[in-house]
Every structure is written in structure tokens, then in C-alpha cells.
Amino acid sequence: MSIDSLPPLREVIERHGLMAKKSLGQNFLFDLNLTAKIARQAGDLAGQTVIEVGPGPGGLTRALLAQGANVIAIERDERCLAALQEIADHYPGALKVIPGDALEVDFTQLANGSEVKIVANLPYNVGTQLLIGWLLSEPWPPFYASLTLMFQREVAERIVARPGSDAYGRLGVLAGWRTDAKITFDVPPQAFTPPPKVTSSVVHLVPRQSPLACDAATLGRVTQAAFGQRRKMLRQSIKPLGGEALLQKVGIDPTRRAETLSIEEFVALANAL
Prior knowledge:
- This protein starts with 8 loop residues before the first helix and ends with a helix.
- The chain is elongated.
- The strands form two sheets. A seven-stranded mixed beta sheet has the order 4-3-2-5-6-9-7, sandwiched between helices. Strands 1-8 form a two-stranded antiparallel sheet.
- It has helices at residues 9-16, 32-40, 59-66, 81-90, 107-111, 127-135, 153-159, 170-178, 216-228, 234-237, 243-249, 263-272; strands at residues 28-29, 49-53, 70-75, 95-99, 116-121, 144-152, 179-187, 192-193, 200-207.
- 40% of the residues are buried.
- α3 (59-66) links the parallel β2 and β3.
- By secondary structure, the protein is α/β, with parallel strands linked by helices.
- It folds into two domains: 9-207, Rossmann fold; 216-272, rRNA adenine dimethylase, C-terminal domain (Helicase, Ruva Protein, domain 3, Orthogonal Bundle).
């Protein structure tokens, strides 16, 4: 079943010579039913502004537009721009394509005061970096109403991880502190071209309106130090930030390891720092 009257993605990719580039972290989704399922995880999109990062040939873009969204797409690969222009012509006034690197984009300025949703099959090589930037953005509540993002399954598990689990780390602390995050469904490798070596997962994150009071940048520093040497005791891993003295200030045993601390304890450390 087609979601629109545009040509199949395989045909578009062949016509424009859009073979996925490993250097750009590209893995294309051809199944438009699957891209529509991803878009639906973001909720009702009719009349909503959606920012998409790395649209590639536009499979997810088409699904978002078919559900009534106004899409701002950021694409670094100039080879994809002609294919995206064809989609823009099919949906007049509903798709704006911004050529460039998403890591250099001011997303708050892009939102321009209106509430947006971010929906993306993120390039593997920048996905985590982008997410951390969105989680640490100021002011809070943020410029976005939700994030609906695809990651490698391993990264998705780190985002929703809880204290004490092997996957718990910096991502779990930051995402758990500021958002309600959940994995909505998995996508097998064979759904992509070229197929990655791992399963992917779609994660939906909704910002908490009133997270625990804490300076975001300081919490970022504390978690980076603590999990940067996660096998070591906290008195050693956060030594550059105050070590044992800082831990004693908030009543945390210096011999504990980072993965045993709750989000509340990390916030207390950041506030003490």
C-alpha cells in the first residue's frame, strides 16, 4: 500500500544515484508502511511542525507529510536534495529543506517560538550527540513537545536504562532526569538498505514539565566524569570535580560505582558542585 502517489523509494534512489554512505551513518528505509508506523509514534501530526534530521531520500519525510505535518528537514548530503525537492513539489508549502550539518543548527531558532516535534531516523554517527544536546537544552521546558527517534537497539536501551542495570549510564541519567522515555518498537536489520549489523529501536521521549531542579551543564559534567571511568569507585572517577569531599557533602559512599547511583543522587551531586 502506498502512502502517496510519488514513485517507490527504490526507484527514487536508483534514479538519483543515492547509495547510502557509511561515512554519513546512512541506512535507508524503503518500506513506507514502516516509516508511517514511526511517524504515528509521535501522535497526531495534523497541522504540527516537525523537525526531521537526516531525511535522506525522504521515506520518513513522506510519511510525516502524509499525516498532515509541516516538515523542516535538515540534510547534510547534497545528493539527496533533488529527491527531497520532488517531495516538496508534491506537498506545496509543507516541506522546507535546510542543507547542512544538524550539529551546527540552532534548533531553538529553527522552531521560532512555535512548539515542534522532532521525528527522525537519526544517522548512527551523530544520533547520541544530538540527543544529549536536546536533553541539556535551555530553557526548560524545551522548544520541543516530544522526540521520536530511531537508534541502534543498544543505544535505545541505554536511554531508558535504570540504576543498577548494565545499560545504565550518562544517557539514562540525562533522559530519565528530564523526560519520560520508552522504546516503542524494534526494526530488524533487513528493513534497511544497506542492512546494519544490529537491530534498531524507535524511542519516544516526552519532556517532564518540572524535573528536579539542577543546572543542566553541571549535571552533564558530573555524569561525564562518573561514567567516564565506570569501573572505578566514585571517589576516583569524579576526583577532578572534588572526589571524596564532594561525595561526603551529599552523604554518598565514596566506594560506590556510578551505575549504582539514582538520578536523584546525581542531581544532588551536581547541586553540591
